[in-house]
User: Fold these one by one.
Assistant:
Number 1:
Amino acid sequence: MLCAGAAPARALMYPGVERPTHEELKQQRDEGYLRAAEQEAIENAREFVGGLALNLDYRYGVQDLVGTVPMYQFPFAGRTKLETYSVRPEFVFTNWLSTYGIVGLHRGENTSDVQTLDLDGWMAGVGVNAAVGLDEITPECLDDVTLDPLFVLPDFNWTHNEFDGIDNDVNAYNLTIRIGGAMRTNYVHWGVYGGPQYQASTRELTVQYMSMPLVVDAEPKDAWSGVIGSFLGVTFKQDERRPDLLLSVEGGVGNRQGALVSLRYEYDVFR
């Protein structure tokens, strides 16, 4: 039998690392890391950014699915291979919160022991990013380098998907939590991360089988998987917190394997 799953759209709104001025660096070292970090965290939480970003994404994913045909109680398994090209306009409210829209095109197929299902189609949706973590550190022996010891990036999105081989629409809900660390010089950002990912999607699908509509109940073989990734960014102005131009590469591990390449440009309108 056959089934299909929708690939998630993903985003990376990195909170950024701010290069301290000489006065801020002296204050941090005089007061101690914890006291200076607490004060800066409050200031960053209150600061309105008002940034506009545009993300261009390419994703290739492979996912195993299982299910049954309710009418006959017939179990089946399938494998989905899907390419997704998407564009994500994004609005950055603060250093720790942004929201984005998604539009994209799918190209792929689902294979099983019985037949191949066409998964060419399109998607649209919305998502929200948050960013929390520890304050940056500038080591005394490396004044030209600032470290971000820990960041946590929860990302949730919903997408509406239409596929040529499925009569009804498919709604997908994705949660990814990226945990990592980063460093930057005056103009270059670099970081690594990893974390868990969860997906839920429409289970009841109507497909054409031998020219007849057939309802199947399908779901991912394992709703939980993981991601590992890295990013490289460039800041055009030394005093900016987040990269103006960011390239990220991400791989999926577990039941949802594949790769994501994303290019992001951000412009802070109100700065």
Note: Residues 86 and 116 are 24 Å apart (CA to CA).
Number 2:
Amino acid sequence: MDGVRYNIILSTNWIRIPPRHQSKWTKVETVVPEGVVFTFIGNPRVRVPDGPKFLVKNHPDKATLTTGQWIESMILMRVGTFQYNGEVIAMYDYGLTNVGTIKVTDATNRVTTGTNQLSR
């Protein structure tokens, strides 16, 4: 993000939304040029009022997400606020996946390669 690589598992700058221990899910409100607007919603089997909205930049599925689609959890970094329909909502960034080649040498000096997708 902004030219900085983060380990999304170890970095304290990234948070899981919603947290795993909560029964809330998120629903796609709409897709806008700046990203995807989501709404916190309770478990879809239980009727609860809609919660706060937030924008996610760089969501990898932006092109295929549709209004009303459910998303269970995302790891995001808060980057500011966004004006949406006359209200100020939180803005998060999904980041861009950093895929790199890893070379591993085993006991017989055979080199194998793989990819690392834990950082953004």
Note: Residues 53 and 85 are 11 Å apart (CA to CA).
Number 3:
Amino acid sequence: MPSLDNNRNRMLALIATVPVTAALRASYPVTMPLRASILLIAAISALKLWLDRLAPKASYVSYVGTSLVLLCVLALFFAALYLSTAQLVQAFGDNWGQLEAIHRATMGWLNKWGISGISLENRSELIGFGQDVLSNASTILMYLSFIAILVMLGFPEVMRWRRRLITRG
């Protein structure tokens, strides 16, 4: 009867896939930063070990140094995102005439094919687009800040866990 057991296990695994997928999808706002922070901790542990060799007596120096490097990288990313968004907003304002000309040409081409397009009477559509971009950028910044906090709080525990694994193994 091993074939019945195998079939039963396969069917149970197939049935369990649906609620597990739904649970992972529902928990995405929590699991995504956790996964990213775990990967970041694994990537930055080499820097921590290198700083431990420079100051073997004071392990807090390596934690502070690693956290400072993480915060500097995060600040550079925030600055790059802010500057690129500012350039995008300025480019919309500076090139409004060209954007209208491109829009008119595109709408003329679409009308030849019998497709009606969106009228661009005012700047409200582009302003709405800009607001969407900024709201998505702020969401990204919040996720990255949460990930940075998780990394800084979780990094000391990972090193303790690693020492326990080495001593047991």
Note: Residues 2-168 form one domain.
Number 4:
Amino acid sequence: MDFDTLAQDVLFETIKSLFPLQTESRSIIKQHVWRDRKYVGEMNGSVIVWKGWSANLSHLDFRYRTVFIDRVANVLSIEEKTRLFGWHFAKSSKDMEEFVVMFVLDFPIDAYELILQEGFIPRLMSKVVHACVVVGINEFLSYTAHHWTSQIIRLVILQRLLSRHRKPLDAYEIPLQNLLFRTGYVHTYIVKSGLGLIKLEPPRASGEFGHDLHAIVQHPDINPPFNLGIELYMGAVGYHIQTIPQYIVQYNLKAVIIIAKDDPYNLLQPVFDNLGIESNKIHSLYEISASTKVGVNFLALQQVMIDLDDIRDDIDNLLPRVPKQFGL
């Protein structure tokens, strides 16, 4: 059997073992090529190439990440491999013309020794460690897919237990908008503030004019129900200082929640004043008044991240534990 076929079979068997009810297992198995000199190195001015196959398990369960199987020409000196990946990784592939690396990503640096204790090879990167199985190409081809599947399953479970394998929540605004909606975070925040939630719409499509999420809420002291906008910013609010007032006018917003790294109210206030929009800064949605003033409620992005992390841990605690037979 050739490398490409066996690598795909190993990933397929891994998916079937971890997610036995999935019917589209092969659809998440993709071919990839690494060509980053900081990631795989270079020789004589040319970037080394690692080629292989991977399966992004997060498509099946958000708690998992990608598993990789790469075939590598062993052209770097042991000194260069040590500099790039650490001594244990360099030693593991010594004297091989080609080697295969089966690995998972993003363990904290302090997991290095524990990865060794579990029988895997740590690949030391700049700020994280990868857990690997490193074998020569002939050894890889001499075993069945089931043999390597058992090792990769142990890698995946070790990653679930020890690694920082989830993407930072501030990586993308749109996924975070959806997370705020799907986890009920915005719903809960509105209700805990003392308002009644009549309707909360899903996030707008990317590029569509308007605030990110729209709610219709009821204040116990104000009739009728009114519109509430929610805006999320991962970086500086920037030009949105001009667009937020437009959203308020266009959608007749009585208040707006702004989730950002820094409170933008001092920047927004002169823009409001120039447009004749009366506003006031509110620390709770319950402070929204019956007057014509628009309430601006700031939520610190960092605190929202912490809250979502707690929600994730609560979800993890509800899910089944790691089976004992895997020995981790």
Note: The radius of gyration is 26 Å.
